[in-house]
Amino acid sequence: MNIFLILMVIYIAAMLALGYFGSKKATDSTSYATSKGDVSVFNVSITFAATFASAGTFLGVAGQGFAYGVTNIWFWASQWTSAGIIMALIARRYRRMNMNKNSATVADWIADRYDSQGLRVWLAIVSLAQIAFIASQLVGAGVIINQMMPFISYKMGVLISAVVIIIYISMGGSYAHIYTNIAQGIMMAIVGIILAVSGFFVFGNIITEVPAQLAAIDPKLAMPLNPDNGGYPDILHVAGMFIAHFWWALNPQLINKVTYLKSEKDVKTFCWLGPLLMFLMCSVVLVGSYTRILVPEGLGETISGMDSAVPYYVSMIFPKFIGAVFLVVIMAAMMSTVDGVLLYVSSILGCTLYKNTYVANRVSKGEKVDMEKVERTTMNILKYSTFLIGLIAVPIAFNKPSNLTAMLWGAAGPIMSAVAGPVVIGIYSKRPSAKAAALGSVLGCLSFLVLYFGKIVSSVYLCCAIGGLVSVVLCVIGLYVFPPMAGEKAEKIFQIVEDASTD
Fold it and tell me: Which pLDDT value is given to residue 152?
């Protein structure tokens, strides 16, 4: 019997069991969406790292190393360093202000910060683009399952993966997400470092030997800046990569993790432990260069696409059983990201749009509302929308892209650019302005869309970097153009900022 099939069945059963255990704690809409703020710092850190590292990391980014060589190390370096810096700058303040607001999503946090229902609805709508993000991850699942079990088609592999994730998230919400990500993250960290270190045994000193052997194939493959690599052919694009990862860490499914922590004293540990675990997981991107040495002729008929570089390396270097284990871990990388995004988008529909927009609007008009009924309805929306969103993503994933990483970043770019300015300025400004936030959010998002889909800038990373910068800069300018909030509510928010800055 196929070893991979046996391991996959065991893995899927374990994930479903963890989803069931999560259902015991996700008893209301708040705990379903964001937990009860009772999760240990290690568990939050590894959940953050596992959500950050995805099938795009284990397949797409590593595959770029196959195509372009050592220049791919810039992606690895920027992931964990930029995430660590941005979390150190905003995590504590974000958590402090979120705890006072009890916001279920980043859209809710921004709307509460600026006292604007318009911003809530706008960011909720933009967040729906994350469905394409989910689809990009399911692509990785389809590739792995089809490669290891040819009797299962690519499309069936996508569907199976989606159904499993939908089931365990709909059962346990945030706790299913946390419990499964702990298991997935530990596996990803172990396998990531094993695969990276394996290069020492296969090629010798990877610092000297890998570049030398790549240079023998093509000198460009050993260059720190490969002109053939559209992602980072020069120092400008490398800088863009680091900036883009600043905004990547502000993806709603990531920044919200800080609200899971038990206490504020855990935030400091989270800010270094999360990036450290990312460092271990994302070291897998080195494997793409390893594979290119083993297959110097290039993609050809040997590898169907560069996204298959890591599976090919694993199948060549490791015994069959160990290789199958490692490939299951790549599946875990996909699931650990999909479940976080799926949870966030369902929270947008249930908490942000229904509970915090529709119901809140009725309450503000003086209507009598049965809150117990509202809570039941919210939970139903959360659970049913999990199914709906997951199933919408499946046919999108059926159309397998030529570049998994480009699809992933293209899907995440709109929301990254939309939230960058409002979050950063909302945390540090003592004179918030809803109009300023709207200006930065809308034009930041539009900047990304025009640059990327208009093909004005070829690098998706640079598009994301520019979109986020536009968002932040226009939010700052808007502070001096538009009047700030006024009244008692604004004063309370100012006090929260003051408290956060003096702790």
Answer: 87
Q: Which two tokens stand for residue 449?
A: 């869309």
The pair of structure tokens assigned to 357 is 């927009």
What are the pLDDT digits (tens) for 246-301?
999 998 888 989 989 988 889 999 999 999 999 999 898 899 899 999 887 765 54
Length of the chain: 503
Would you give the distance in Å from CA 47 to the centre of its chain?
11
* Helices vs strands, H then E, count in the chain: 23, 0
How far apart are the C-alpha atoms of 63 and 288, rounded to whole Å? 5
pLDDT single digits (tens) 214-224:
999 989 989 88
How buried is 123 (Cβ within 10 angstroms: 0-12 exposed, 13-18 middle, 19+ buried)? buried
Please check whether residue 433 is in contact with residue 476, taking contact to mean a CB–CB distance below 8 angstroms.
Answer: no
* Radius of gyration for the alpha carbons in the chain, expressed in angstroms and rounded: 22
Sign of the C-alpha dihedral computed for residues 292, 294, 300 and 301 taken in this order: negative
Residues 6 or more apart in contact with residue 480 via CB below 8 angstroms: none
Other Cβ atoms within 10 Å of 246 Cβ, number: 24
- If we measure between CA atoms, which residue out of 303, 320, 223, 328 comes closest to residue 10? 328
Check if the beta carbon of residue 421 is closer than 8 Å to that of residue 472: yes
CA–CA gap between residue 187 and residue 195 (Å, rounded) = 12
Give the end-to-end CA distance of the chain in Å, rounded to a whole number: 59
Q: Note the pLDDT tens digit of each residue in 87-134.
A: 999 999 898 887 556 678 899 999 988 989 999 999 999 999 889 889
* Alpha carbons 419 and 113: distance in angstroms, whole number: 12
Please say whether the beta carbons of 295 and 302 come within 8 A.
yes
Output DSSP code: residue 286: G
Output the CA–CA distances (angstroms, integers) from residue 308 to 48, 220, 237, 280, 289, in the order listed. Answer: 25, 21, 25, 21, 13
Q: How far apart are CA 301 and CA 320, in angstroms?
A: 22
Q: What residue spans of 429-487 are helical by DSSP H?
A: 434-453, 460-481
CB 421 within 8 A of CB 475: yes
Low-confidence spans in the chain with pLDDT less than 50: 301-304
Q: Catalogue all structural domains in the chain, each as residue range(s) with its CATH number.
A: 3-23+36-405 (1.20.1730.10)
